[in-house]
Amino acid sequence: MLGRRCGSPRAFLALGLFLLGLGLDWVPVAQPLKVPLRVKDLLPVLPRQVSWPVLNNLHSAVDLLPSFVGSVAPENGTIGWKGTCFLDNEARLEFTSGDRGDDLGGGVLHLKTDAAHSWTCMDLYVFATPYRIMWDYYFSTREHTLEIKSWEEPAELEYVKQHGVAIFLMQSGMLGTLLSLIDVLPLFSNTLWGQNANIAFLKKHMGASFEKRPQPWQANISVADVHSGDFLAISKIRGRWGGFESLEKWVTGAFAGHTAICLKDEDGNLWVGESGHENEKGEEIIAIVSWDEWWAEALKDSSNPQIALLPLHPDVRAKFNSTAAWEYARSMSGQPYGYHNMIFSWIDTIGDNYPPPLDSNLVISILSMWTRLQPSYAANMLDEALNKRLGTKELSLHHILAEAERRGITLDHLLTIPEQDDWVYSDGKSTTCVAFILGIYKAAGIFEPFSSSIQVTEFTIRDAYTLRIYEDNQTRLPRWCNDGKVPFCQILGEYRMELPEYNTIRPYAYMNEHCPSLPPTYERPANC
Ligand SMILES: *[C@@H]1O[C@H](CO)[C@@H](O)[C@H](O)[C@H]1NC(C)=O
Ligand SMILES: *[C@@H]1O[C@H](CO)[C@@H](O)[C@H](O)[C@H]1NC(C)=O
Ligand SMILES: *[C@@H]1O[C@H](CO)[C@@H](O)[C@H](O)[C@H]1NC(C)=O
Ligand SMILES: *[C@@H]1O[C@H](CO)[C@@H](O)[C@H](O)[C@H]1NC(C)=O
């Protein structure tokens, strides 16, 4: 049950790229000078500032999509295809016994590239399973190998046996983008090294301080002091989810990566509502679980979570309609996690929302790869949401992009059309972790009199904790959780949580529909 996550689109993409591996095989061997030189081939070696505008002029959005060249599985022998640089390519996959000692084993991908059309050209490939994405690029005609030391889990091994490793040919202009993300890699390691990488990353890119807290790191919670509507802000710093959260924090400016909400029933029992809770089948859904179960899972979570409890202000709590909150929460319980609106929650100001080197082309590339790997999630996650934005039905990604282009809508613009809370997808309403909580707040009347002009899917986690709705009098915080150092309650964690601008912005109509968010300061204009 430790797979809880919130998930925001950009982090998801970066995660896709760096989930667990990255192969680099830089072999700039000189080639005979008998092939022609082409300007386009030089793009990857030019600085990004030069190459990207050129590239963007050369291609339409559709051309930027990675092309799927095939899947290679051990049983299936060798696959061959034509690249853009090398016309003659082959790949085969071999399972190896691995180095972990638990017999999961790994694999080696053997690639042969031949018949380059020019001596300056290269082919850039992404190799993917739903569990990892690796990439590599080739300048030379020869045999290359790409090693996968160990499959991440038995499910990955099983997937590769059945479906193989997917190979995508990328626009070579993507190289700069991929290279500049290299320092993101160690974030996903479930080791002390990985944790330190996350901490260093957040310190460097967000100015986080990570001050150690004195023991005990875990509070003895008194359920009587916790109320319906109290917000739980969670920050993970280790392993796959830690790395995922770090990227998400970086792109959204939030100092927490996941959220949940406290709800009390008529008998005074405490429950936790959470979107992104992993059920027994490994699906991420919206769930309401008892406090004891939730807390026990938090305590044994290997991602080393830091957890803060943000109690509602007494005046807000007085406004909180618990009946309506429960009605909404129950109506959502069991629904799938909000894959649809995940992508769109914060891409709301053109150009201003992607920290370099992410940009909308990369976003679309990764999403289209995801569509290939996990058709059941991804097709509806992306295609349905984009169809809603265009007012079309059941167009595939390629057709959506073509249709947008026909109407003169740019890719950036298409991605920034705001999500509407009342959109219903084929598998139900879609809410991410924080949209679920704010949906409860909206139902409970906290945003009155602006409820009808608040789209909760526009809020990031940071937008949620900067709302001015929480307890602002330190002396009223429960004694079991507050050491006077932070204006909220920290109930778990080795490091002191920071929530910059906590509890400062009063709700207003059309809140957060046009807010930029760019590191390192994430400056937010008033009333955006
Ligand atoms: C193996 O090859 C067969 C026939 O070409 C194809 O139908 C199947 O999808 C391939 N399997 C994988 C895992 O690529
Ligand atoms: C919680 O209770 C345990 C045992 O009763 C105690 O050792 C620990 O110090 C307490 N923690 C806090 C934060 O009070
Ligand atoms: C609280 O919500 C319920 C259900 O939506 C509604 O029937 C009730 O009138 C609300 N109570 C108040 C005080 O607004
Ligand atoms: C904070 O709460 C305490 C206890 O309820 C109260 O005495 C005090 O006046 C409050 N302070 C402010 C600034 O409201």
UniProtKB/TrEMBL annotation:
The keyword Signal applies. This is Uncharacterized protein. Keywords: Signal. Residues 1-32 form the signal peptide.
